[in-house]
Design brief:
- The protein has 231 residues and is an all-alpha fold.
- It has helices spanning 5-34, 43-59, 75-100, 121-155, 159-175, 181-202, 205-226.
- The radius of gyration is 18 Å and the shape is globular.
Length: 231
Amino acid sequence: MIVSKSNIFKELTILAFLAISIPFAFTSLIYPLFGIPSNAPIPIRIVLLGLAILYFLKSNNESWSGVGLKKVNKALPFILLTFLLLILQAVLPSFLQGLIGGFFQFEAADYSFFNNVHGNIKALIFWICLSWVIGGFFEELIFRGYLLNRLTGLMGDTKLSLFLAIIIQAVIFGLFHLYQGAGGVMSTTVIAILTGIFYAAYRNLWMTIIAHGLLDTLGFLAIYYNGTTNL
């Protein structure tokens, strides 16, 4: 179903308000009340944005397959492409940081918020489960399944608008990871560009969900065993 540009604009305005107001409420009011660092991640923001998007999809009578949650017809190509995406996500950000580091100085991504995972099996299980729900499902639904498609529809269904939509959703995705510092923003932006390209090419959100979930899982396993995200 084609959604009108006016409806897209209304939806994006609501989501922008939620994306800005929720962090403000938590960092200014809730986190100080409980002594939580103001730069801590805010998982509830992703959940609320995801629920709002699910409501928009239902209101517009859009199907799950419309955002890429569809049946996998050929298992082997799907598995190979998913693992190719996972490998690129794991390798390319570090490679580019090393390449660009010769010209610009970037801070390493800050994962100190997850220090309690090191050697702590309960924290490991908690964060892995949460990462599959928040990162794997909701982030992919929000940024690839919804935002990329809505931006393309808003700017016109052309190759240029698709290219711009991939870049814009990736930049916003990176900014959502400000708590990881400049290095984390750069890494997640690169990852989102890669994921956006794969989603645009194959239109299967399960591929990006699984790759995202596996990448986060590997990261938490590395922290659990080594105290660092380096495997």
